[in-house]
UniProtKB/TrEMBL annotation:
UniProt enzyme class: hydrolase
UniProt keyword annotation of Cytoplasm present: no
Family: Belongs to the glycosyl hydrolase 9 (cellulase E) family.
Pfam families for the chain: Glyco_hydro_9 (PF00759)
PANTHER family: ENDO-1,4-BETA-GLUCANASE
GO molecular function, one term: cellulase activity
Active-site residue numbers: 414, 465, 474
InterPro entries: 6-hairpin_glycosidase_sf, 6hp_glycosidase-like_sf, Glyco_hydro_9, Glyco_hydro_9_Asp/Glu_AS, Glyco_hydro_9_His_AS
GO biological process: cellulose catabolic process
PROSITE patterns for this protein: GH9_2, GH9_3
Organism whose genome encodes this protein: Turnera subulata
The protein's name: Endoglucanase
């Protein structure tokens, strides 16, 4: 705890100094970040599948997917719809869970009255992942809903009449990527609930270990096993080696079992540890794993782990302008830019890693080495703040890319439930094809998906608030998840 307190004091001093030097520092107050944190967690309630609880805040949503899994005689009710559709995709859902848990693990002490909402967001998916992992021995259920059929409809989740096929990975049809990410999610969640619900935490960790063993023993990519039902939607482009290392890293952090340390030491070099990669996402876990493992070296100088500090530094050096190995792209307005489709997912993951690494460096008195130049923890926080503030509205368009935050935000998001009148406003069934009248409508979405962060602007800071333009206007759980940690940090350290 002493480290955390020292870190907080350093940051408060730093941000006070930066504010004297920079007008942009006054764009948002601690209260603004706290409001955004609250809304970022409300978003997950809007993505819920299953039987909604009495304390549901986004009340325009209703129960959905209540028979998921029944065709295969398993209970797969619950979990999250990944984005603007009605499919439950296991790989992005597990990654979302891991990042929500990591947000609480690193920045939970800054969440204050949002801690219970954050835990509820994690538990909604960890409960589902537990069911998916334990329903049938030797099987992990990884998807509910045929995406090809689902994507040809525009209907509310409450009205779904498309097939709710279930898809699974087994010893014969392996999916090490989705299984190892599921193991990471369960292990990370076990840390979150360790004090408040020890028996649940223990069950999460034990299941994580079993799922990881399954992933490691029966190696293969779920893209090869499941083909067109996961590709091109959430195809595992980076393969499964990065997830195996990531999963082992999380189980080690949760269990402190030395066998996972040995696994990492023996396998790291074959699982992407020797490669510098600068994109952290639901598909590619390498930068996140390296920063997670750098903590082990920074705090315990564990043999062989200096590699992860070195590669974490390389990752940071590639992002921070002015370093000799800088190679990232930024828009004219200063937004980190990685890809045309759903670019803000890379902004939020990068921002989270900047803040997490700043925390690790600050607590151990270290810096980032970029050739002949050094980058401090304070510089990482400043860089992260620019990205957070851009998303919240400090940008050339003066638009917040979080729905419901600020005076100007996207009104026509690519999201079925948000764009069709709710079951309370329009109780009659709206069929697959009848929903398209709302998709093509020029009117704003009738239901505000509070807290949703959309795909975001293009590389010239232009944004089309257009339901048809899904690359910019579709929200997703894995865009929001890492942002929860970043908002918690700035709500307490601004």
């Amino acid at each position: 705890m002493a480290h955390a307190t020292t870190f907080s004091l350093k940051i408060q001093t730093l941000l006070g100094t930066v504010c004297w030097l920079s007008i942009s520092c006054s764009a948002f107050t601690s209260q603004d970040y706290a409001e955004a944190l609250d809304k970022s967690l409300q978003f997950f309630e809007g993505q819920r599948s299953g039987k909604l609880p009495p304390n549901q805040r986004l009340t325009w949503r209703g129960d959905s997917g209540l028979s998921d899994g029944s065709g295969d005689h398993v209970n797969l009710v619950g979990g999250y719809y990944d984005a603007g559709d009605n499919v439950k995709f296991g790989l992005p859902m597990a990654f979302t869970t891991t990042l929500l848990a990591w947000s609480v693990i690193e920045f939970g002490s800054s969440m204050h009255n949002q801690m219970e909402n954050a835990k509820a967001a994690i538990r909604w998916s960890s409960d589902y992942l537990l069911k998916a992992a334990t329903a049938t021995p030797g099987t992990l259920y990884v998807q509910v809903g045929n995406p090809n059929v689902d994507h040809s409809c525009w209907e509310r989740p409450e009205d779904m009449d498309t097939p709710r096929n279930v898809y699974k990975v087994t010893a014969e049809k392996p999916g090490s990527d989705v299984a190892a990410e599921t193991a990471a999610a369960l292990a990370a969640a076990s840390i979150v609930f360790k004090d408040s619900d020890p028996s649940y935490s223990s069950k999460l960790l034990q299941t994580a270990i079993e799922v990881f063993n399954f992933a490691d023993k029966h190696r293969g990519s779920y893209s090869d096993s499941l083909g067109s039902v996961v590709c091109p939607f959430y195809c595992s482009y980076s393969g499964y080696q990065d997830e195996l290392l990531w999963g082992a890293s999380w189980i080690h952090r949760a269990s402190q079992n030395a066998s996972y340390l040995s696994y990492i030491q023996s396998n790291g070099h074959t699982m992407g540890a020797d490669e510098d990669d600068f994109s952290f996402s639901w598909d590619d876990k390498r930068p996140g794993t390296k920063i997670l493992l750098a903590k082990e070296f920074l705090e315990k100088t564990t043999a062989g782990f200096e590699l992860y500090k070195s590669h974490s530094d390389n990752y940071i050096c590639s992002i921070i302008p002015g370093t000799p190995s800088f190679q990232a792209q930024y828009t004219p307005g200063g937004l980190f830019y990685k890809a045309t489709e759903s670019n803000l997912q890379y902004v939020t993951t990068t921002t989270f890693l900047l803040l997490t690494y700043a925390k690790y460096l600050s607590s151990t008195g270290r810096v980032v080495t970029c050739g002949s130049s050094t980058v401090t923890a304070e510089s990482l926080i400043t860089a992260a703040k620019k990205q957070v503030d851009y998303i919240l509205g400090d940008n050339p368009a003066k638009m917040s890319y979080m729905v419901g935050f600020g005076s100007r935000y996207p009104q026509h998001i690519h999201h079925r439930g948000s764009s069709i009148p709710s079951i309370h406003a329009h109780p009659d069934h709206i069929s697959c094809n009848d929903g398209f009248q709302y998709f093509h409508s020029g009117s704003p979405n009738p239901n505000v998906l509070v807290g949703a962060i959309v795909g975001g602007p293009d590389n010239r800071d232009n944004f089309g608030d257009d339901r048809h333009n899904y690359v910019q206007s579709e929200p997703a759980t894995y865009i929001n998840a890492p942002f929860v940690g970043a908002l918690a940090f700035f709500s307490a350290h601004n």
